[in-house]
Structures
1.
Amino acid sequence: MDGMLLVSIALPILAGVILLIASFSEHLRQAETLGKKKTGVRKEQSEGMKGLHIYVGLVLVASVALTLTTAWTGERSLTLFTLLDEIPVFFQIDDIGRLFATIVSIVWLAAGFYAFVYMKHEGNEKRYFGFYLLLYGVLTGLDFSGNLITMYLFYELMTLTSMPLVLHNGTREATMAALKYLFYSMCGAYAGLFGIFFLYRYCDSLIFTAGGTLNAVTASGHGGLLLTAVFVMIVGFGAKAGMFPLHAWLPAAHPVAPSPASAVLSGIIVKSGVLAVVRVIYYIVGPEFIRGTWVQYTWMALTLLTVFMGSMLAFREKIFKKRLAYSTVSQISYILFGLSLLNETAFTGAMLHTVTHAFVKCGLFLTAGVFLSYFGYTKVDQLDGLGKKMPVTMWCYTIFSLALVGIPPTGGFISKWYLAEGSLESGIGVFSWLGPVVLLVSALLTAGYLLPITMKGFFPGGENKAVSKKEPSLFMLVPLIVLAALAVLLGMIPNPMIQYVSDIALTLLQ
Amino acid sequence: MDEKFMLLAVVLPLITGVLIPALPFKNRKQMCIFMETGVLLTSVLVILLLLNPPSDTLTVFRFTGNLSITFRIDGAGSIFACMAAVLWPLAMLYSFEYMKHEQNEKAFFLFYVITYGVTLGVALSENILTMYFFFEMMSLVTLPLVMHTRTRDAILASRTYLYYMLGGAAFAFIGMIFILTYGTTSSFVAGGVLDLTKIGGRTNMILVIYVLCFCGFAVKTAMWPFSTWLPKAGVAPTPVTALLHAVAVVNTGAFAVLRITYFSFGADVIRGTWAQNALMGLVIFTIVYGCSRALKETHIKRRLAWSTVSNLSYILFGIVLMTPLGMTGALSHMVFHSFMKICSFFCAGAVIYKTGRNYVHELDGFGWKMPKVFVSFTIASFALMGVPGLCGFVSKWNLAKAAVESGNGMAYAGVVALMISALLTAVYMLSIVVRAFFPGKDFDYGTIRDVEDPNWMMIVPLVVFIVVMFVFGLHSGPIIRLLQTIAAAAA
Amino acid sequence: MDFIQNFPFMSIILSLFSGPLSSILNGKWAKRVNMAVITVIGLMSGSVLAYVLGTGQGFVYRMGHFSAPWGNEIRVGVLEAFMALFFCVIMLLCMLGGVAEREKEIEVSKQNLYYIMVNLLLCSLLALIYTNDLFTAYVFVEINTISACGLIMIKQNGRTIEAATRYMIMSLLGSGLLLLGICFLYDLTGHLLMSNIKEQVQMLAATGQYHIPLVVSLGLMSVGLAIKSALYPFHAWLPDAYGYSTLSSAAILSSLVSKGYIFLLVKIFYRVIGFNVICESKVIHVLFVFGILGMIMGSVSAIQERDIRRMIAYSSVAQIGYIYMGFGLGTEIGVVASIYHILSHAATKSLLFVAASGITDASGGSRQFRDLTGAGFRNKLAGIAFTVGSLSMVGMPMFSGFISKLLFGQAAMGHTHKMLPTLIALAVSTVLNAIYFMKTVIRLYAPGSGEEAMVEGRVIHIKEQPAKSVALVFFILLNLILGLNSEPVIRLIESGLQMFD
């Protein structure tokens, strides 16, 4: 049955590579003709694109189905080949991997279908979908990876394959943003790698094991060194999750990327940082090792700082997608804060928030994309009165906003509740009460920067005559509705989810 | 095999080289075939020698009683020799095409081929004098190659080159004398040959001499503050910059440092002393310094040269760790870096050959016009950055593992430096890649209308290098185990 | 007594009398006589060397069978015979290399004068090598000075006259100091014969009597000879003297004359004072320091020089520094290294002078660097020869310079305090050597004539200058022999030094 695992990773990668080769050769021809004849930009042929959409859709559905089946049918592991001396490329499906794979699949499906319509105005669809599929395979690999090296391998690949999504439109601004993204990601990845070297020395193995594999005997006497290494890793992998001080790439990369790309960047890619941190802290080092040390406290301080700072910056921001990006900065640090508390409740809260935020933020970016692609609006104050033109879309937006603020009955409420409770439970001096306070303040700020759009959207005080009433195409609308429904569902029927997540927490933090 | 073949391997390229201007070739093709045959024969001979190493040493010539030119094949040497044997025929193939647009080919090929013999001489040397001899020869025979274009820049560069090379040798000389006087033998013996009773308690003297000698040999690896010659020497034709200044010459320096450290002075003597820390400090600084300079540089070849500076110090870093693991890392990076760097240089050379463009900002959109070259360049960049799955990651991993294992505080700083350097590498390599493939929406391809991929002679080496990078990257087990055996035997 | 034992004395007398003989011959015949004399003396020295090697011990030759203090003695060992042979070879090659220049630069009427001087010079050199009498040595030092002055002055222009005057003044100062030293020694010991003095000095040293006068006399003699052999900082006369005199003169002066004095110093160290006394005195520290300074400063001056001949001349200052540094180490192997360097430097420096003239010939006679661009292509043999000489100077393996550097290094290793300074000085001086010699070599092989060249170069074929070409080829061979087959030479020097005692 091991083959299933491999296929679920390889299928999208292969499909993506095929598409990329096609796109590459097409582009080559184009460059050729452009060079020779100096004609203008060639018109995209809609027939060809339809074929492409069918291909991508089929592959996407097939691989999502495959991934989900692989994930949810029993324990699997697979040793592919030996990359380094004693370390193989090793896959293993565990509970948290399952959870992440599922989120990735849902979001990927949603954003993928959405992109069929959206990408028409961005052009160069083959390349986009090529990388999109490729990235899906890589992420599946990341979620299923069974040891730190495998994870690092896919982590790097993820950075490299997601970068073309950022610079998709090819403007100078996008290129610079992509390079910035690359720089920060690499910075983080190398910081992570730095830690891996030390963990390799002082851990029994790099295979993910609940409770950690740190070898107490060899590690004794090197506590300070190891703590530093772990801290560097947290900061490093935190870069992907937009944690201060390596957060600056997010507001630069998100606005320039095509909306579905920013949706998956914000919904999923940043979560990979979270996953990496979870893997390192809970599966390799072991939470006990850093409990009560300066690493934990500094980490907490950093996350709380990021939460507050992100919200403030989002509040001040006028460009819609940038505002959402800052919001991501803040929200992901909720999750990291939950992880840094090192107790079950908080961990549960963090995982719940991961799920909620994935759906919600993806939804928000997709909404922004709708406005962008139909009206070309990028600024917040341009959105006045759109509620009357696109009521369904705006309602979806409202639900996402409420979920992000944490108003019942949405998923956000549950997760934030757990986070706050975990923080109070932790009893870590000042942080136990400072945490909830910051969370609350940030929630208020979130409400402050998201809800006015809804209000002005429905009650603009004046008619926006520039546009006519029209809902977006179904390809765009359905994903929005599904995501919104999921966000609500998580709040209405939270128990199975909570049960699942707290089981994980229990095994990790006995 | 008989030990006489070692001499043959060293001499065969010399003969081939000398015959190039002497023989009356009907046309260029004939000459190329002749040279390629000579080089290939040597390579085959070397590989055969390495597979059936002769058990004996071969003394070719005696200066005085204990000073002789002697050859032998051992682990570390065979790695170096093997590398040269693989790279040279490919580089020759490349230069046949490349040199079409340069003057005075025969003189170029004469020295280019001779350098092969000298490199093998370094690899096969049995004692410190032999190594020093070939080390000096290396400086001399590569000088005409640096001077080749005969422009003012080339003359100035060749001056700098020679000053650094001979100056380095002058300091390396001190170490050689020391070993000759205070060693039990001048041969390379695993674990070192110093006669500690003869020296008495004068440890500091050993260390001072070691530092001087290290720096002397490390001039060839362009360690800071002796690194300026390498970017300057970039005026030479690309086959020279690629094969000699990214592989043969500079690795000779690294190899020599490795020899004196593990086989002459002995790692045990140096480990844990101020000398180790001081040198490690220099090396770590060079790692970061080289990268930062590469970042600032806009001339492609010079950028790659600075990158070489930094990467060579990775090798030195592995060496100064003074552990078998460190040596493993050093050897692995020596091998892997050669493939990665020669590949990137060949790509740069292809651009220069085809278009004469030298600067990074002139490469907009080239990825679509020279796809084969730039895909290779991209892969080489990834390898240099240390993306897992390519060979660069493997050597970086081994180096860092050794550094962490050594438990030396300075070595930890080295790991940090490795990571910083990797990051900077990502920036300065990928900025080229991004430029080439994503020139921007309204880029006018008309400006680079006639740019196209070079012919097979340039592409074949690139393909081979890429295959090697992937093979070593995905399946590093065997070679790393081999290197570990060698290193374990040495230290 | 074997007949062959007369040879040393005969060679001195032969060269001495060929001088006056030349005065009645015309230039052409004087040249022939001179060449023949040098060859014959070389052959005789060779046979003496073979003889001494055969018997395995040196011999003393008393002139007229009078014993000291009335008689005068010649003492012959392996080293003396070898030196005589080597000096003859070098001199012959130098004379050969400079034929064309001599004919061009010296007035026809004065040609035979030149050969008188050369013969006298050879005579004095041989006497310095062989004599066992300190005062005789002094006498021949003076003869040496005078004939050297003549060699410088013979090419008559303002520069050479000035240079000769300078040389004269400095040399006389040096001779004066030497004479003072000898007087002191005579006063202390009452002898002039080397072996006798040594006995007394050893006794004095053992009892600790007259310590200060002994040191003073040693110092005076050392400084005197140091001035004459242009040890830094007494080198001011050298660049002009070597730089502007005719080619053979420059080559002979740099490779032989200064070496004669140095050899005399070695004899004083070993045969007059005794090496053990020398090592205990402070004088060698002074020599060591000045030797090292010379190594560095000579090269620094050479780097700044724009005239190829003067550059080579300054390089001599550095090389003399090497030799004194070797003495300064105060070890047996240090002296061996120094003596080897005397040989190696003699072979290399004269090669460089001759090659440089070949190069200047191809550059319209100009010696300025800017005119030499590409000269290596115009005069191929001279270019190669210059490159060989430069590489030897830089200490490239295969050439003689490498071996002497190796010996110096090994000598330094035996020393506790002087080791590191010596080694570093060696390295730094190698770097400096590399800078000015390699700069020149690269210029020789730079493309065409540079734009800044003031004169038109012309291509010179090997056949055009047969004598010079032959000389160059032999010089190169000599260099390679010394570099590749050094072991017999080193053993010869070692056994020669042993015979000194």
2.
Amino acid sequence: MLILLNKRLARSMMRSKIRLVAVVAMVVVAVFAGVSFAAYAHTVSGMYDEIYEDSENAVNLPDLWVENPSGTWDGETSASLCEDLASNWPDSDLVLSVCEPRLRLDGTMFYETTEAGEQKEKLVPAVWHGIGEGSIDRVWMPSHHCCSGRVATEESEIVIDARVATGMEISIGDSVTIGAGNGRMNFTVVGIGLHSNHLYYAKDGDLFPAEPGTFATGYLSSEGLERLANMSSGSSNLLLIDILGTPDYNLPSTDEDDGPELTLITEAMDEIISNSVDSPSLIYDRSQVFSVEILRADAEGAMLLSYVIMPLGIGISGSSLGAILGVYLGTPAMLTFYEDFMGIPILQTAELGQIVMQIVVVTTAVVLFSGILPAIQASRLQPLEVMRGEHEIRISSRKIQKITSRLPATAGLTIRSSIRKPARLTFTFLAVGLSMLLFGSTTLMMSSMEEMTVGSVEDDQNWDIQSNVLSGGEDEVIQWADDKGGYHERIITFPANPINDSRVISAIGMEVLSTESSALIQLDLKEGKLPEAGLQTNQILIDEGLNHFLGWETGDIQTLVFGSTPAPVEIVGITQGEMSRTVYFNRPDLAKIVGLEATAVLIDLPEGIVADSDLGNISLLVIEKEDLISSYESILEQQQSFLGSILFLGILIAIVVLFNTLIINLSERDREIATLRVLGAPMNRLGWMMFGEHLAIGLIGGVLAFAFTLVGTQAMVSSFVQWSFYMTVSADPVVAMQLIGIVVFISVILTPYGMRRIRKMDLVEKVKDLSQ
Amino acid sequence: MALVKISGLERHYQMASETVRALDGVDLEINEGERIILLGPSGSGKTTLLNCLSALDSPTSGEYLFSGNKVPKNESEAMTTFRRENIGYVFQFFNLLQDLTVLENLLLIQELAGSRNEDRARNLLTLVGLEGEVDRFPAEISGGQQQRVAIARSLAKRPRLLLGDELTGNLDSWTSSVVMEVLVKACDSEGITCVFVTHDESLVQYATRVIRIDSGKIISDESGGGNVPSSTPLRTVG
Ligand SMILES: Nc1ncnc2c1ncn2[C@@H]1O[C@H](COP(=O)(O)OP(=O)(O)OP(=O)(O)O)[C@@H](O)[C@H]1O
Ligand SMILES: [Mg+2]
């Protein structure tokens, strides 16, 4: 009995070879994607903990940072701050282990390139670290081909970042010319390494890694950096605090309070520090380490994806092939991409065996379930039966007949027979819609990203150069701009945070707040009005993300904290398009709060005039808009090659699912088509009928696919937006057309296959079937 | 001239160990207006012969002329065209299109043949006694009524040869006699040549000619109990 049933199953599956292939292909794709994404996620999420460890080969990441955003502390103040902290450390389980003052400065690297055969000096924005004792937050030099050499000990030595070494082709023994707002000096490269602040190699506040050659970081000895910046011995603007063990810290993306103990410590520290110094200082924990957040979200996203794709698979036979592809192709490809994109070496890949087992087991379970279910339901061992909707309710044929009675009977038949079984129809549309989810959401994400990055810089930013300066340094830059005949505005960028909340907001003070397209920075006001300057309570604009995360609304009076200085503000409007959390002040208002007139100067230069080394010498760092755009573009390009493979996967899934669905749809109609054929229906007639049907399915399915995609992407985006990265996804008509077009295209090109199937139909046999 | 002229028709099925000769040298002429009943034991080759006549199947060898022209074989599109232009077909299980009303089932066939004629379709339905059911769906009428629709459908495009395999096999004897009478009446009035396959000896009364077949060969060919139609149709519908 069982043997006979199995024989029957085997034969009926063999007969539908194409469908079998499609099902197996689905499983292959599912397992392939599942293994690749899961292996990637596991590897990436584990690697950072290893880098941050306090061990011989790791960096010993601090647990807390105290930062002076408005200047530096001299040697005496630095030392006394650490002493104060040590002697007044609160009684707690969290015991202070190390307090190390450190100097970290923005600066410039003067980089000689040959452009079009011409020797040219480029001003590359940079960050220089003076790493003293180096017992904490060391330079990471793993035994991997990325890194080599030793740390800087002499005042003329420097370790440069591995990404700079590759991007600018610098090797050990070379000499580099750098500056930090005080002329330039030469340093000798003694090592190539990585640093915890720059694992994710992006300029401060940038979402994407910097293009090779557009950003530099270097790790000097403390004496070296003091000499470069012409500062007294022991100067610092950072205190690195290490606590015994690793305390829990609050991740900005969760609402839970994971580290109440740590919060008590930071509050106590805040008090100790504000007793000792006047200028506002920031205290933050590991949750502010940008890489922690973005990478965690990254890995989670990939994880999610692997489990979303997986259930799409049915059938057991594809698992092994999928697993092999996943292990030998997908995983290495994704990890290599990650290594290249992030520039961080992956020393060890996650244990693959377990991942493969997990995914194969889940897929197999889905397979068994979908095989057993219809067997029980229909007492027929036909795994696909359940989808075909044999057991059907029919919608009132009468109504549809009324509507279509004026059409020729052939057209009426096409329409009616395709909508007569609502369950089958719903399944078809659902499958078609879902099939595009991966492809569609990736495309939509890409277009939103592009809009937010290149689009917003190109369209909304009208300055050519941003020159960052130390307090008081702006005058020289303004003089330079005037000499060149450029238009300039001072701007203040200063970190702040909401009261009782450690998450960082960048407060921007602008000379001109404007929504005009001619403004140096054009604001996209979503609601409200522009702030007025000089009022009792400062008026500000907040960005959409702040509205989302804090629930702040137009009209609210809220308190922002600058270091430890609270400032009440009135929100008069909400802007959109900012990726990181931002508030806008009128510059004089913000200057009063932070005690600085400017942190940078925005310059709009006349045609043909560019930044020169004079500007480099007087600026901390110089950002050129062109560089910004081209680095965004190259990032997007890079991402595109990666997303391209996801797109390919998405299309593959879409084709397989669409194909399967339409074939099920067709084979459902065999009886009808055989009858028509016996009665003499010509092929081209049936072809047109099928074409019409596929066109309709494609159109409706495509619209649904876009709707699913939009909702899905919005859900996905809202699950990974976080404090430091907020974006919204809107219905892009181009993407919509593209999606619908693809679905229509795929379903229409399946028509010839359907026709071939009819042509090959054995009518004698069908007639026999028809009379049984 | 004979409408159908078959000589030395053979249809073989190649099996693993043997060759099944489903048709083993059939010679047959059918004149216009004849109404033939094809009888024979199970497995004798009746269906095979009918399938060859309708060009659903291609004979292994032998000649088949229709109206003096060679009938296409092994060429699905040409065979379909031949069927569309000449053959009417009534199935045992009616095979009406469930999504079309009774009337639309007829219109569809006319559309496929390129000549939609609603008046004719309605008249045919009146002829088979279904004028009250034209707007119903097949699922809303009885089996006998469905078969009558199928007959009207097979006539809708005015085929030259009407074929039916066990077309009453699924009906009780009373209903089957109603259906046969309708069929005879319709064929007479349209002057259509018919070949019906059956196991049911009692249907002999409706035939003008009875052919018996066994093991793929014709073993007898005689006049039936049905009256030979006059050379001009009594009435033409449409
Ligand atoms: N596809 C096939 N493959 C092999 N042999 C076949 C095939 N179709 C029919 N035959 C054989 O051809 C012979 C004639 O079959 P046919 O279907 O014409 O018989 P029949 O007279 O219609 O029988 P019944 O009255 O049972 O319908 C039988 O011996 C049958 O086994
Ligand atoms: Mg038969």
